[in-house]
Amino acid sequence: MRIALTGNPNSGKTTMYNALTGSNEKVGNWAGVTVSKKEQKIKNAYCNNQELIAVDLPGAYSMSPFTSEESITSTYVKKENPDVIINIVDATNLSRSLFFTTQLLELGIPMVVALNKSDINSKKETTINVAELSKQLGCPVIETISTSKQGLNELIQAATKQSTQKQTAPFHQKEIDLTNKNEVENADRERFSFVNDIVKKVEHRKIQTKDKNINDKIDAILTNKWLGIPIFAVVMYLVFEISQVWIGTPIADWLVAYLEMFQAWVGDLLANANPLLSALLVDGIIGGVIAVIGFLPLVMVMYFLIALLEDCGYMSRVAVVLDPIFKKVGLSGKSVIPFVISIGCAVPGIMASRTIRNERERRATAMLAPFMPCGAKIPVISLFAGAFFNNAGWVSTLMYFTGIVLIFLGALLINKITGYKARKSFFIIELPDYKIPSLWQAFKSMCNRGWAYIVKAATIILLCNTAVQIMQTFTWSFTVAETADASILATIATPFSYLLFPIVGVLSWQLAAAAVTGFIAKENVVGTLAVCFVGLENLIDTEELVLMQGAGQEVAGIIAITKIAALAYLMFNLYTPPCFAAIGAMRSEMKSSKWVWGGIGLQFGVGYTVAYFVYTIGTLFTAPETLNTVGALVGLFIVAIFVITISVLIKNANKKVKEEYALTSK
Amino acid sequence: MKLIDAIEGQEYVIQDIETDDEELDAFLFSLGCYSGETITVVSHIKSGCVVSIKDARYTIDNQLADAIVI
Ligand SMILES: Nc1nc2c(ncn2[C@@H]2O[C@H](COP(=O)(O)OP(=O)(O)OP(=O)(O)O)[C@@H](O)[C@H]2O)c(=O)[nH]1
Ligand SMILES: [Mg+2]
């Protein structure tokens, strides 16, 4: 039996779903967290070994969808015939929620109403006459508190019992012509007045919502004209500083010590084994994987902090604060949430763009979100900051800052290319009440994502490292290569190293190989570098590549590029197309291969151009005599191709816009 | 008058939503923002205003506030 969880956004559907099924889906205190359907068996504790499946759906305000994630919900309940619907009603907002409830009741599917967040009502001394509400609606109404699992047993019992009943609707829409706007509106008006009557009968409020409350006082500060943006900047700075310096790094150091002990232990075990095998296992496979896992603490602390931010209600305020700036580049405040989520991982970030209604805005957001350095890029940043810049904090800050600047510039470019005319766009966002974020929730979310990181390191990264290690050990005739330069890997990667030459100033197939494997998953950059540079894995605490005391200089020596080149190479890796997973997500959100290829092209072009200029200009300033003229010209040529392509596209777009205007003026 | 000119904290009745975007109109409707319903501006901010419709708070931008006649 399938039970569909439906209701307004932010009413607590996913919290309830997680409680019922024991899963760990994303919860957040803003409207539009869930953007796709999720199914899972309900725990035995709630269903006495019956086969019950809960289906979590995106929130919706009504049966007529406004954005694409809302249409998932209406399509599901209409087409997929769930056996029972649990309609989760935010008890603090009965007057709006029941509109959707009465529409759902008309479907004829057995239904139970969960009056959720009833704890908040008790606090605000709002009372709801549950028996009367149930009578008015013609379906059971159960008070619940999803956050503390209260009322869930009764709810599931009622739902099972109800599943055999026939559902009747208290309000029937008259037979109308659904294509006639006026008739539809009149029918909806009647529905709302029906709802208003019920609310009048069952709800008694002590505190009126329209009165100023504590939330408004907090808003006055957090979304203040002058303070809003600085506060956001400080909050984000603290997230990075705490995760990457204050707390993350000490834990990482400690973890790395243990991981290295393990590596040494395996090394000892294999002391008498075939040296080739032990090199493959100890240096290649284990070294590469722990290189990545060593960064786990940094990433996990960051996930924890982001989960706290998401749960307290600040995210929609950030959207409000940044809306005016983003409007200037043709996006809106709605794009902010995908960008912030992308700091954790670009895949859910890109998916979050679904809540944006305007198609151009949505696609642009999905295309630009990967410019934000994600969790997988932290190891790469830390490696370079450690090896070349003495672990300086500014490296990381600069990378995030550049990411943000690129998002703005990218948005401007996309506008120009698509021939965007400043059109009326409306921005409306719900402001949920603030709440004290749940530490337990954040902890669970952190463990969940941390685990996913470990799994990735132990699968994709492990496989890639093994492949890289094998390819650099053997020649094409499958004999052991005398020097790595004769290996399979070297021959494959060398062509790419020519492309990288203008950015790093040396021909290095190792750097090229790392950049290429980075497209599979960004952590690979670290793993591959560790495997490729002979001896590197012995110098750095591979993981964290927090280099052992003083090893930084040596690593820099082995990679043999200048500081400027290191910075340029780092930027190239961060701002060119992200991993395959993110490209896949871009494809499914954009639903247009033209946009996907355009996006990949834009990311390549921008990443290359930024890296080229950083290297060339930086070198001209610091050590002009080392700049290779041929390399600089080749790079300039590549950048020129990119710029020319963009200008042609912009010109075409302008022409089209002009033609359109010409037509309309005739 | 327009919502932009509303006095903070005072309840107004919506007269009209001036938009030719039918989907937006329907969306506002489902939130309870339609002619005949009440709306309260909780505060004006630089980019728009914070409003209370039914029992929820929203921030809307100036363009939208300009389309709501009260
Ligand atoms: N006080 C209280 N808060 C709750 C309750 N249930 C959920 N919440 C909080 O409400 C917020 C939204 O919860 P979600 O489960 O993400 O809501 P949702 O309905 O899935 O939202 P969308 O996916 O955006 O449609 C979270 O901050 C929860 O902690 C409850 O019973 N009481
Ligand atoms: Mg949800």
Explained architecture:
- With 666 residues, chain A is an alpha/beta fold.
- Chain A folds into three domains: 2-204, P-loop containing nucleotide triphosphate hydrolases (Rossmann fold), CATH 3.40.50.300; 229-425 and 438-453, no CATH class; 473-662, no CATH class.
- Chain A is built from 29 helices and eleven strands.
- In chain A, a hairpin with a 4-residue loop joins strand 10 (540-541) and strand 11.
- With 70 residues, chain B is α+β, with helices and mostly antiparallel strands.
- Chain B has one domain: Ferrous iron transport protein A (FeoA) (SH3 type barrels), CATH 2.30.30.
- Chain B is 20% helix and 39% strand.
- Chain B has helices at residues 22-31, 62-65; strands at 11-13, 16-17, 38-45, 48-53, 56-61, 68-69.
- Chain B has a four-stranded antiparallel sheet with strand order 1-3-4-5. In chain B, strands 2-6 form a two-stranded antiparallel ribbon.
- The radius of gyration of chain B is 11 Å and the shape is globular.
- At the A-B interface, helix 4, helix 8, helix 9, helix 14 and strand 9 of A face helix 1, strand 3, strand 4 and strand 5 of B.
- The complex binds guanosine-5'-triphosphate (GTP) and magnesium ion.
- The site of guanosine-5'-triphosphate has 25 residues of chain A, from helix 1 and helix 5.
